[in-house]
Amino acid sequence: MTRNVAAVSGTVYPSPMAGQPATRLRIAIVLTWTLVLEHLYALVTPPYELGIEHGFHLSFGIAYAWLALRLRTARPWQRTLLTVLLAVQFVGRFFVFAAIPETWVRASLVPGALVTLVLVALLWWPAGRRSG
Description:
This protein is an all-alpha fold. The chain is built from five helices and no strands. The protein has helices at 5-9, 22-43, 52-70, 76-99, 103-124. The chain is globular.
């Protein structure tokens, strides 16, 4: 029999996105789903033989989908996990860029990197902070 630690201790953890403007939360969710679609797309493009890259895209796609569904009420560790996954993927883009010289592959890495950077900023930028 397991119990929820928060329920036992009475501690309530606010969502890491609590206090964020609703628009910021919606954009973060859409961008996370965009990355899910990016991983699905990578699964159906060459090379078609099964390999490490397919395991990567499948596992990251599933993780992003799960985190996208939980983003509204996510625990702090889930935001941290999403950030770690985004960082791993961001660094991985440089390896793919170096390993695959095809122009269409390299061109597809740039928008994905921008989505990653914007999503990390949305996840961690303080709610009360104003630009300028």
